[in-house]
Amino acid sequence: MNKRRLYIETYGCQMNVSDSEVVVSIMQEKDIGITSCIDQADIILINTCSIRENAEQRVWGRLDVFRQVKKKRPDVLVGVIGCMAERLKERLLEKEKLVDIVVGPDAYRELPALMEEAEAGQQAINVLLSREETYADINPVRTGKNRVSAFVSIMRGCNNFCAYCVVPYTRGRERSRDPESILGEINELDEKGYREVTLLGQNVNSYLWKNGTKEAVISFADLLEKTALRFPGIRLRFSTSHPRDISDELLHVMARNSNICKHIHLPAQSGSSRILKLMNRGYSREKYLERIEAIRTIIPGCALSTDIITGFCSETEDDHQQTLSLMEEAGYDFAYMFKYSERPGTFAASKLKDDVPEDVKTKRLNEIITLQGSSSAVSKKADMGKTFEVLVEGTSKKSNKELYGRTSGNKVVVFPSGHFKPGDYVNVRITRVTPATLIGVTENTTGASNNH
Ligand code: SAH
Ligand code: SF4
Ligand code: F3S
Questions:
Q1: 203 lines ligand 2 (CB under 6 A)
Q2: Atom number in ligand 1 closest to CA 160
Q3: Using CA positions, which residue lies closest to atom 2 of ligand 2?
Q4: Pair 117, 229 in one domain
Q5: Which range (136-145, 225-234, 383-392) has the least confidence?
Q6: Which atom of ligand 3 is nearest to the CA of 171?
Q7: Which three-class secondary structure string do you get for the chain?
Q8: Which of 80, 227, 282, 327 is deepest in the core (most CB within 10 A)?
């Protein structure tokens, strides 16, 4: 019998990308290969995101496409996995019979068994959330574009319950992964030639490992430093930091280890203390700006980025102006900006009114995007003439005579290839900037270096 093949599409955040790599690994254990061609697949999985309504809409659109595939080839199994699984299981399996399998983020080990059940014509579903599952022992099959940079999940779930957010419901309680298994995974990546690792969690600053005895308690700052020292040839990034929990200790660890990238993604969400309180974010505007100040003092030149939600329940023009002024004060290098989207089941959906009209949300979002556009331009202009160490990720899309990579501050740099290749560290002097990229020329570098 021919080996069966899996086709998988992934939506949502980096955690989902990382989870899909775990899923591919679990399937490979059962001798199910991977294909990038939907027509060759025996099983189609879609790893879904619920964070905003439009994220879910996109998935419904794809399910229509998969239904057409199933019409032509009724033996193909279609499965929905990830963050939409729990909330939509009934609609997916029972009401509309759109799919054969529904699996939540903590039940991926059950996928092969559920496939068998579905093949036998049974309803195949497992959306149970776990307090323990971290997939610590599973070695993800890297499906990323390059062989240079990889994600490593260090924790799962979230306990923060921000009023607008579905994640605590779709992914369950926060739990940290055994540090030995994290270091083991990074060691394998190192041996395979990977040069950059991003440690992932919804709130990495609250990483905490207790091994049952009193003495061994490992915080995120401890884990980050341990990793940086053990793997001097690997650049480390992490995401996401919560402004409430980003400690001076962590900032000092970043400052004293040259292989930890000098970039912090610190979602503000709003610049108004009143809105932040309604959002249950656990910090005020002042506290947030104090953290930015601490970053600037302890890690001069550190790149900063953020997430902003505009038009949250009861947001006034004055609240909005405070968000704009916070963005101005912070001077972010880049930002992800969203209109508030009410999510069923959240505190905001049940207790607050989604009362900012759509056209006002749009207007405010546009103002925020415009402001960020000028901040990003200022930040890029300031890089003119500077030399950065760039980790090469691949060949530029525009020209095969050029390579691209990233600076420690996470800016994309394009430069002439010379004799360099992906995985090399190259010193590049910036000679031109475009809205999306820095363009430069290489300076006398030898290629492979561990000197960040
Ligand atoms: N754990 C991270 C981010 C998780 S989701 C953190 O706490 O920062 C990524 C971003 O999506 C959030 O930072 C927020 O800006 C946005 N987001 C989450 N829920 C949203 C909603 N209901 N509507 C609009 N944006 C939302
Ligand atoms: Fe959502 Fe808040 Fe948790 Fe981030 S910290 S995942 S925004 S609940
Ligand atoms: Fe989306 Fe789930 Fe990530 S809701 S943003 S895929 S944790």
A1: yes
A2: 7
A3: 162
A4: no
A5: 136-145
A6: 7
A7: CCCCEEEEEECCCHHHHHHHHHHHHHHHHCCCEECCCHHHCCEEEEEECCCCHHHHHHHHHHHHHHHHHHHHCCCCEEEEEECCHHHHHHHHHHHCCCCCEEECCCCHHHHHHHHHHHHCCCCEEECCCCCCCCCCCCCCCCCCCCCCEEEEECEECCCCCCCCCCHHHHHCCCEECCHHHHHHHHHHHHHCCCCEEEEECCCHHHCEEECCCCCCEEEHHHHHHHHHHHCCCCEEEEECCCCCCCCHHHHHHHHHCCCECCEEECCCECCCHHHHHHCCCCCCHHHHHHHHHHHHHHCCCCEEEEEEEECCCCCCHHHHHHHHHHHHHHCCCEEEEEECCCCCCCHHHHHCCCCCCHHHHHHHHHHHHHHHHHHHHHHHHCCCCCEEEEEEEEECCCCCCEEEEECCCCCEEEEECCCCCCCCEEEEEEEEECCCCEEEEECCCCCCCCCC
A8: 80
The residues lining ligand 3, judged by C-beta closer than 6 Å to any ligand atom, are 12-13, 15-16, 49-51, 82-83, 166-167, 170-171
Q: Which of 16, 160, 266 has most ligand 2 atoms within 8 Å of CB, for mutation? A: 160
Among all bound ligands, the one having the nearest atom to the CA of 164 is 1
pLDDT tens-place string over residues 191-216? 999 999 999 999 999 999 987 666 66
Ligand 2 close to Cβ of residue 163 (< 6 A): no
Cα(373) to ligand 2 centroid in Å equals 25
Is residue 450, in this structure, part of any structural domain at all? Answer: no
Residues 68 and 192 in one domain: no
Q: What is the pLDDT of residue 451?
A: 44
Expressed in angstroms and rounded, the spacing between residue 165 Cα and the centre of ligand 1 is 6
Residue 144: predicted pLDDT: 80
The pLDDT of residue 87 is 82
Mark whether 192 and 81 lie in a shared domain: no
User: Which of 68, 94, 126 is at the close of a domain?
Assistant: 126
Q: Which of 126, 158, 173 is the last residue of a domain?
A: 126
Parent domain of 76? 5-126
CA of 343 to the centre of ligand 1 (A): 11
Domain match, 364 and 422 both? no
